[in-house]
């Protein structure tokens, strides 16, 4: 899509040591802060971005949204799970290690959003909240381009039956089974169902399952591990 840029990292090309090797972009997982800063600089520069012009979040598995027009600077990073901007050239970033990174952009309106959709965020409605915030800034759902990145797949995200039922009661499309036939949740499928109901038609979903891919961080697989990032920005 002309004017809209989307990018998802893997775990390689950074400076972090095990168990965060290599390109850990998460600052709250126990990694050396200096390594994380270097990794964020490396990732941004590889995308042609100014590292100082990337907006991060303090993600808490909720549905709160922050509208931003500049980096946080010395201000505290807010506890939100989506950021939205109408400032072209400002990159928005979301951290994940099994949850679904959701990147959204309306190039015509010049509005972009990044959302962190894990199972709790899916149920809480973080993605619809992000789309509503975009619409308030002039975006139209029919023009929004949506890309979701590497995440744990429905075959691998095993949960108790009661948890699957709770999620499916809110979003039936997330109902899933593992290859063994045990209860599971497909968060990516749930996110795309929500986007479809909102009128977002231009969507693409990464085929990568983080738990199955050794090239990606997975909290469910490794527990102590790094974080991937998704980036969205508009020219």
TrEMBL record:
Essential cofactor(s): Zn(2+); Cu(2+)
Record note on quaternary structure: Homodimer.
Catalysed reactions, semicolon-separated: adenosine + H2O + H(+) = inosine + NH4(+); S-methyl-5'-thioadenosine + phosphate = 5-(methylsulfanyl)-alpha-D-ribose 1-phosphate + adenine; inosine + phosphate = alpha-D-ribose 1-phosphate + hypoxanthine; adenosine + phosphate = alpha-D-ribose 1-phosphate + adenine
Domain of life: Bacteria
Functional note: Purine nucleoside enzyme that catalyzes the phosphorolysis of adenosine and inosine nucleosides, yielding D-ribose 1-phosphate and the respective free bases, adenine and hypoxanthine. Also catalyzes the phosphorolysis of S-methyl-5'-thioadenosine into adenine and S-methyl-5-thio-alpha-D-ribose 1-phosphate. Also has adenosine deaminase activity.
Annotated keywords: Copper, Hydrolase, Metal-binding, Oxidoreductase, Transferase, Zinc
Any one GO MF annotation of this record: copper ion binding
Family as reported in the entry's similarity comment: Belongs to the purine nucleoside phosphorylase YfiH/LACC1 family.
Protein name per the record: Purine nucleoside phosphorylase
Organism expressing this protein natively: Streptomyces echinoruber
InterPro entries assigned to the protein according to its UniProt record, in alphabetical order: Cu_polyphenol_OxRdtase, Cu_polyphenol_OxRdtase_sf, Cytotoxic_necrot_fac-like_cat
Keyword Cell cycle tagged: no
